[in-house]
Amino acid sequence: MLQNVLVKGLLNLTPGIGNGTVTLKGVTVQGKVLVSGGGANSVIFEDCVFDDEVIIDRKDGRVRVAAQGSTKIRIIRVEAGSAKLEESSLAGDSDGFINVYITSGEEVELEGDFEEVSVQTPGSRLNLVSGTIKTINVEDTAVSSTISLGANTAVTTININTAASITGSGAIGTAVVNAENVTIEQTPTKVELGDGISSVSVAGEEITEATDTTQPAPEETGAPSTGGGGGGVTRPNTYILTLEAFPEAGGSVTDNTNTGPYTAGATVSVNAEANEGYQFINCGVTGW
How far is CA 107 from CA 62, 103, 125, 146, in A? Predict the structure, then answer.
């Protein structure tokens, strides 16, 4: 164990570690961290501060890197080898892993809540086992890559810029498709097609135009005029309130007022409850 030290410059966890376990606790590194050794249960960062990026360069075998406590890793790059990145026992205000870049062309497994993940190498395999990802970028260099989303996982936005496969049962908010030969097993809430893209395969069907399964805004309605010479009476705009939790397994949202449809400017009380293992982050409005 390396504990409560300040490292100025590069910290190299060398291949000599083999498949052993290394724990860094309360370590501050003012430079890059290079992970070249370690095995399936190996590298643990607890309450660590990294001023620069962490690079995984495991030439032979698979390495697990776990972020615990108050650890914050702004950038981690998987440049060689297979890896598992896991957030466990994080402090309430800790970000754990934030931005992940995958350039190894091998399988990378994720457990936790990630801000942004970029897949950059052909034939890469990204497997979100549990948790969430705000944005996935499948770059134009990552042709034939596979993104697998496990049960009860969720991705807010996935940008697909090359031929790729999205598999699994995890929820997808918006899929932005900017390439041909893209296959998405599940049905995203929204699908956007880039300029010149003819189609995308979604849940076994060819989609040729943008789709949006969110509740649309109701059309303005007006009652006909009544009585000769009298002015017409116009019915005020009314709105249907549809509530949903994302992902669905994360909890429930309830309209406590429950007197809809509502007119513009009406006050509505809404209650959101998270299921065990989830936490409420924010709310959004669509369909106006």
Answer: 9, 10, 4, 9
Write down the pLDDT at residue 189. Answer: 92
Tokens, residue 126: 């990204």
Q: Which residue has the higher pLDDT, 117 or 82?
A: 117
The answer for 90, left when phi > 0, alpha when psi is -120 to 50, beta otherwise, is beta
Is 215's pLDDT higher than 80?
no
Backbone angles phi, psi at 87, to 5 degrees: -100, 125
Q: How far apart are CA 196 and CA 24, in angstroms?
A: 50
pLDDT tens-digit series, residues 220-231: 444 443 444 443
| DSSP-based three-state secondary structure for 23 | strand
pLDDT higher than 90, residue 280: no
CA–CA distance, 154 with 133 (Å, rounded to integer): 7
Lowest-pLDDT range of 101-115, 143-157, 176-190:
101-115
Contacts by 235-243 with C-beta closer than 8 Å and gap 24+? 236/263, 236/264, 237/263, 237/264, 238/262, 238/263, 239/263, 239/264, 240/215, 241/268, 242/214, 242/215, 242/287, 243/270
Question: Tokens standing for 104?
Answer: 């190894």
Query: What's the confidence (pLDDT) of residue 40?
Result: 73
Both structure tokens of 191: 């699908």
Q: Find residue 202's DSSP bridge partners.
A: 184, 205
Nearest-angstrom CA–CA distance, 112 and 67: 10
Percent of the chain having pLDDT more than 90? 44
Is the preceding omega at residue 247 within 30 degrees of 0, hence cis? yes
